[in-house]
Amino acid sequence: MAAYDVAGNVSAQSSSASAGTPASADAAAPSIPQGLTATAASFSQVNLSWTASTDNVAVSGYRVYRNGAQITATASTSFQDAGRSPSTAYAYAVAAYDAAGNLSALSSAASASTPAEPDTAAPEPSMTAPRNGAAVSGTIAVSAGASDNVGVSHVEFYSNGILINTLAAAPYAFTLDTTLGANGNHTFQAKAVDAAGNSSWSQAAGVTVSNWRTSEVAAISTIAASASAIVTSTPTASRDISVTIPAGSFAGQVVINLKILHDMPPPHPVANSDLNSTGIGMEIRVAPTVQPANYATIEISYTDAEVARLDRSKLLLARYDEGSAAWLPLESISYPAQNKVTARTAHFSLFQVMSPAAAVDLDDIRIYPNPFYPSRGQARVTIDGLPEGTKVKIYTIKGELLWDITVPAMGTVAWNGRNKSGRAVASGLYLVYFEQGGNKKIKKVSVIR
């Protein structure tokens, strides 16, 4: 800038001064966010993600809307919406904004539904019969009640730790013939299982079984001196038993008395550590008291229920020796298809069907039939040779647990080819896992339907 007068004189220029014009106002909104996705990450959280918007200047952030209402603002292109309710549908949209406050239109909506909350509550079973402390005999009622926050899948009943029945629907009740077992103290317990695999046990009910019918006369036969004979139980007897006596066994006439036993001496804790009782027995007495000079063949039958959890091919007959208070195994032949066991003996006394005790390690485990063909009438897969206390678990190849049990003292368990929900498993290969005393082993079983 310079000054001048009327005579035309002009001053020097002043010091310079600068100024800038302001930019025009930003009125352009960011682009609409694209690619919004909503995924239920759990029963209480939905995860959102989208593609970044663009702006003529810069995008500052995004507003997130749930069911039409804004729930947050974020500078990120993702958001975790926690604290949601299970089994609920949610709709989401996103809008972008810039520093000037310009807001884009809402993105296309994305929806997600949270799943139901996992069921972790175990059912609550209770034994309703027999009552704890009861003295029972004959046929008794066995029952339990069970409740669950979702629903009971099935109830398992155990006697002395051994599974005796499984019921899939209420009322959870059945009858049990106590005469098929031994007299004495027994426990009953129920285990309730729901569809999620949660389970719990009822309080145990301890009872005393008192069936005083310890024996029944099955046959009485007179045998002439030196004669051969076959003495069999009468048609009305509760069990088929017999003894075949060869010629020359007795020098004089004798009377043979056959009895079916319902109570027998227990196995000797040391001498019979390798044998388990079945409670299936007979007695042979001779009058006058004399033992045969030749080996006789004895035969004892059994029912399917009496040996349901035993390997029939391994059953044997043993003679009770009163002097040592021990059962002495006899040379025996088992006929599983005919439900009987035979043996030879030259000493008449008490006789019992017995089974070998459980194995002591995992190397003797057997799984049969394998493959398992339900379509051919095969009802169960038997697993035997198990040490007492072995944990058995059956998994799919993908690692899904189908069935588990802890082995009782008898060393044999049976799997019916169903999962924890009671549904039949599909054809395929399954892993059988064993664990006992720190030792582990895996075998395989095939199911072909």
Q: Judging by the overall fold, what is the CATH architecture of the largest domain?
A: Sandwich
> Count the strands?
34
Distance between the termini: 106 Å
Largest sheet: 6 strands, mixed
Query: Radius of gyration, Cα only, in angstroms?
Result: 41 Å
**Low-confidence spans:** none
**β content, as a range?**
over 45%
Structural class: mainly beta
Rough outline? rod-shaped
Number of helices in the DSSP assignment: 0
Number of domains: 4
Question: What share of the residues lie within helices?
Answer: under 10%
CATH topology assignment of the largest domain:
Chondroitinase Ac, Chain A, domain 3
Highest-level CATH class of the largest domain:
Mainly Beta
Instruction: Name the average pLDDT.
Output: 89
Describe the protein in words.
The chain has 449 residues and is mainly β. The chain has 4 domains: 34-113, Immunoglobulin-like (Sandwich); 124-209, Sandwich (Immunoglobulin-like); 215-356, Chondroitinase Ac, Chain A, domain 3 (Sandwich); 366-447, Immunoglobulin-like (Sandwich). The chain is 0% helix and 48% strand. It is built from no helices and 34 strands. The chain has strands at residues 34-42, 45-51, 59-66, 69-74, 78-82, 89-98, 110-113, 124-129, 135-136, 139-147, 152-159, 162-167, 172-177, 184-194, 199-201, 205-209, 215-223, 229-232, 241-245, 254-261, 275-287, 296-301, 316-321, 326-329, 332-335, 340-345, 350-356, 366-368, 381-384, 391-396, 401-406, 413-415, 428-436, 439-447. The strands form 8 sheets. Strands 9, 11, 12, 14, 15 and 16 form a 6-stranded mixed β-sheet that branches. Strands 17-20-21-27-23-24 form a 6-stranded antiparallel β-sheet, with no helix packed on it. A 5-stranded antiparallel β-sheet has the order 18-19-22-26-25, with no helix packed on it. The radius of gyration is 41 Å and the shape is rod-shaped.
